[in-house]
Give the backbone structure.
Amino acid sequence: MKYRVTLNRRDIIVEAGSKEEAAEQAAGKIHQGEKINRIKEVESSESKSGSWWEIWLD
């Protein structure tokens, strides 16, 4: 599953088996001063609003 992790400064798209796993992946990649605000299951990494804030984590 793909999850959009919403931080206070940007969004990150991660592939994970659960919300908890998505949070762990994002926690290892966030910058100082950022925090996780929300985790939401998504079907695509494409932005519907036309903005490109998504970053793939490998």
